[in-house]
Design a protein that fits this description.
The protein has 136 residues and is an all-alpha fold. It is built from 6 helices and no strands. The chain has one domain. The N terminus is likely disordered.
Length: 136
């Protein structure tokens, strides 16, 4: 599973332009952000059931954009949210990221977790530190 996530991440970073290359100015209010999300992040391929390499990449890019929008809704800092959505673990949603970085390792029962989950928490925390240093 981990290798699959890494493969998709490397493919997205090397073979396709960034999902944020044509980044547009986002609305500032929560209501307007929700409208933007409904209009621009609709998953057109999910209902069809067809999975091709192109739609897999589109799904990957949509997932990153959803994380970015969720972050902007909560924090309101576009530069940080762009950074964090691209650098946090691919399989991790924004809500899980918040838990990983806002709780202590003891609160997360870190020592009782599998290596996979420990690694995911470590990556989220590293992404947070990187993005704070680059954007704040």
């Amino acid at each position: 599973m981990y290798r699959l996530v890494i493969s998709y991440t490397l493919l997205a970073l090397s073979a396709f332009p960034s999902v944020f290359a044509d980044e547009q100015e986002l609305p500032q209010t929560l209501e307007a952000l929700e409208g933007y999300e409904a209009e621009n992040l609709v998953d057109e391929h999910a209902a069809s059931g067809h999975v091709t390499p192109r739609t897999v990449m589109e799904q990957f890019n949509l997932h990153i954009e959803h994380k970015r929008i969720d972050c902007i809704k909560a924090i309101g800092h576009e530069k940080f949210c762009g950074c964090i959505s691209e650098n946090m673990p691919a399989e991790q949603g924004f809500a899980n990221y918040v838990v990983a970085v806002s709780k202590t390792k003891e609160e997360l029962n870190y020592n009782g977790l599998s290596d996979y989950y420990k690694h995911s928490i470590d990556l989220a925390r590293s992404a947070r530190d990187l993005c704070v240093s680059e954007t704040m």
